[in-house]
Write a structure and sequence with these properties.
This protein is α/β, with parallel strands linked by helices and 232 residues long. Helix content is 40%, strand content 17%. It has an eight-stranded parallel beta barrel with strand order 1-2-3-4-5-6-7-8, surrounded by six helices. It is globular and about 45 Å long. Bound molecules: phosphoenolpyruvate.
Length: 232
């Protein structure tokens, strides 16, 4: 399996999301590559509608750990499923950095989503400071410690210093981190961090890299489709 997932972050309202998805369904996408997009909550319905009848999945960017309740600003797995959403990203480093999400919170979110049958891309990765201190493996071990393999779980290794910075882990660095993680939890693994059409093929050729989580370069349909083709 090769999975290419586009994380749109806080970009593209419903109008833009619909136009993007209509262009994506008309784009030249390769066979044998699973493609998903993760729009902001407000654009999910539009994306689901525009991609209906295709193999392209729609993911959310986050999901709460309770089915319902007094949790202002949150949404639950059954609510996403009612919309036709197939999965969700959980524990993105921007959630950890700006919204105080801890490993414990991320674990609760992952467990809830899996329990309801939602597919999950759980994000982990070290900061530049942690890498400089030689703590990368320790951080990765801590972040996956409370996760168990599940047929619907994929882990994205996203070194925080490589996200949105234009700095990419070398294929060898990414391969090494993926091997460390796969020794702890045997699930498919995506690499994320400044993936572009120019570096995608080399990264995805690494044996422990099963796909990519793409941020900035997923916002343009031609660029995103080119990454999907580089993966085939
Ligand atoms: C991301 O948002 O998950 C990401 C990897 O971003 P970028 O590709 O822009 O580095």
């Amino acid at each position: 399996m090769t999975l290419i997932a586009g994380n749109w972050k806080m970009f593209k309202g419903p109008g833009e999301a619909g136009a993007f998805c209509r262009a994506l369904r008309a784009a030249d996408l390769p066979d044998g590559v699973d493609v998903v997009v993760a729009p902001p909550f407000v654009s999910l319905a539009e994306a689901v509608q525009a991609l209906a009848g295709t193999e392209i999945g729609v993911f959310a960017q986050n999901c709460h750990w309770e089915e319902e309740g007094a949790f202002t600003g949150e949404v639950s797995a059954p609510m996403l499923q009612e919309l036709g959403v197939y999965g969700t990203i959980v524990g993105h480093s921007e959630r950890r950095q700006w919204f105080g999400e801890t490993d414990a919170i991320v674990t609760r979110r992952v467990h809830h989503c899996l329990e309801f049958g939602l597919h999950v891309i759980a994000c982990i990765g070290e900061t530049a400071e942690e890498r400089d201190k030689g703590a990368t493996h320790q951080v990765l071990r801590r972040q996956v410690a409370s996760l168990e393999p599940d047929p619907n779980l994929v882990i994205a290794y996203e070194p925080v210093w490589a996200i949105g910075t234009g700095k990419t882990a070398t294929p060898a660095m990414a391969q090494e981190a993926h091997e460390t993680i796969k020794d702890l939890i045997d699930v498919p693994m995506l690499y994320g961090g400044s993936v572009k059409p120019e570096n995608a093929a080399e990264l995805l050729a690494q044996p422990a890299i099963d796909g990519a989580l793409v941020g900035g370069a997923s916002l343009d349909v031609d660029t995103f489709a080119a990454i999907c083709r580089a993966a085939s």
